[in-house]
Structure formats: structure tokens, C-alpha cells
Amino acid sequence: xxxxxxxxxxxxxxxxxxxxxxxxxxxxxxxxxxxxxxxxxxxxxxxxxxxxxxxxxxxxxxxxxxxxxxxxxxxxxxxxxxxxxxxxxxxxxxxxxxxxxxxxxxxxxxxxxxxxxxxxxxxxxxxxxxxxxxxxxxxxxxxxxxxxxxxxxxxxxxxxxxxxxxxxxxx
Length: 171
Description:
Layout: E1 2-5, E2 8-11, E3 17-20, E4 29-32, H1 35-54, H2 77-90, H3 98-111, H4 116-123, H5 128-135, H6 142-154, H7 157-170
Antiparallel strand pairs: 1-4, 2-3
């Protein structure tokens, strides 16, 4: 299952909501979701469907928003932010902004060794340099791992075997 990011919401004066294309072409993307995400989203959609059916509203379509009023109208962006702040506070995470979750996601992916291009695409950055400039510092030990990997390729196999035999003999 994937989530589609293909437009943004702009709030105009008087609370009028207008959909616009994303900032860049790279911002438009499909994001693979985890099985846990899918389960939660299926439950959420089932609840939305039940409410809409009870109000004789048309069923949800694939183009509808994940978070919206019961009739499909979008929430104002600040609504989601305020709800997040209440949830974070209730769970001892006061001060953690909704946008911080995006940074946490990227940081965890890098620490798992996910290729930077994949992280860039999931975040919707226009260039990989943006992703690397923001996040490359979060994985300590990358330089040491790069040096060790490079050294393992440069050293001839015979020398490694010779060293291992000497170490074995000395034991």
C-alpha cells in the first residue's frame, strides 16, 4: 500500500481552502507504507465509511483526503498541528513538533543504512544534496566504516590470509 502526495492545501483569506500542485515535481510521490501503517489507515477508513454511510453521503474515493471532515472537506492545516500537539503532550512528548516526526523518519532510515536516494524520494526533496546537507551528520561512524570498507578492498587477499595465519600460529 502506498500514500500519494500530489497536492498541497493553501488557506486563503476567510478560511477558503484551495488545492495546489506540490512545490516541485519531486515533491509529487508515492510513499510505501509499513504493514502497521496500513492496518491503522484501514481502520480509519472503515470508520470514515461508516460515518459517511450513516449520513447518506457518497463513499470515499481513492482521491479523498486521509484526514478530512466527515463530508470530505479538508481540515485546515493548523487543525492537524493542534491535534498533534495535544497527542504529543498527553504522551510526554510536549515540544515535539509534527514536522519533527519527518526528521525522525529520515534519521532512522539513515541509521538503518537506507540509501540516501531512497530517503530523498520519501521526503520529496528536489535534490539529493538537500537531503545529504540536512541529514548526513546524523549517522556517526560513516567515515570510519567507509575507511574500513575501502581498506578491505585495497588489501590483497593473500596479505589478509597471511595475517590471519600468523595470528592463528601465535595463539
